[in-house]
Amino acid sequence: MQRLEFDEHTVALLDTDGDGRVRAPELVVVVVWLKRVLRAPSGLAPGNDRVPRAALEDGNAEGRAPLQTARRMLAMLGQHDQTVLTVDDAVQATALWARAAPNGDGVVPPGALPDEETRQAALDGLRTAGGAADRSGEQGVDDARRRTFFGADFAHAAWLAAARDRAAVVLPLGPATATAVDTVAAIEAKLED
């Protein structure tokens, strides 16, 4: 996208479907949202990459969220007293946020966990259920994979309990059942060749 009045970071945010074009419906969504989170649209001046912090609405929940984010962003940058926000501030804070733990993306890398036992559980989950990319670029566990891992873990525990409780049915050959299953699987593979 060339010859635009927006920097490339802003354009990437506006291009919500990632097709390399900013279309009117994408702009309309942004304008409607800005009307809800800004006290007055005059906070956005053409050609200006700054928004006064005071221009952010604090009278509704939707406006308070960006205001709280702006405060946290400026604190991360060590600029607590800064009264304006810039696109560059947002880009720098986003890079810092990506490395922070937690960073709000819903994915938790094992290294961000507080103790070895929890980290090991996360590593087991990654090996078993796969991982999702964290904002930092590391692989981590998200809610769907956590549910998959613990669901499989509980199912396995239930299977082991059933094997103990009904050993004669589940393990008809006793401890030799596992070897017998492996042997049958090997024979089946040879028969299919």
Structure description:
With 193 residues, the chain is mostly helical. It has two domains: 8-99, no CATH class; 110-192, no CATH class. It is built from eight helices and four strands. The protein has helices at 8-14, 24-37, 61-76, 87-99, 116-129, 143-165, 167-170, 177-192, and strands spanning 50-52, 84-86, 132-133, 139-140. The strands form two sheets. The protein has a two-stranded antiparallel sheet. A hairpin with a 5-residue loop joins strand 3 and strand 4 (139-140). Helix 3 (61-76) packs across helix 4 and helix 5 packs across helix 6. The radius of gyration is 27 Å and the shape is elongated. 12% of the residues are buried. The mean pLDDT is 85.
What is the fold's blueprint, element by element?
Elements: H1 8-14, H2 24-37, E1 50-52, H3 61-76, E2 84-86, H4 87-99, H5 116-129, E3 132-133, E4 139-140, H6 143-165, H7 167-170, H8 177-192
Antiparallel strand pairs: 1-2, 3-4
Task: Count up the helices.
Answer: 8
DSSP strand tally: 4
Task: Give the domain tally.
Answer: 2
Fraction in helix = 55-70%
- Taking all Cα atoms into account, the compactness measure Rg is 27 Å
Assign an overall shape.
Answer: elongated
Strand content: 5-15%
| Distance separating the two termini | 56 Å
Largest sheet, spatial ordering of strands: 1-2
Overall pLDDT confidence: 85
Major sheet characteristics: 2 strands, antiparallel
Order of helices and strands: HHEHEHHEEHHH
From the helix content, strand content and strand pairing, which structural class follows?
Answer: mainly alpha
| Poorly predicted runs of 5 or more residues | none
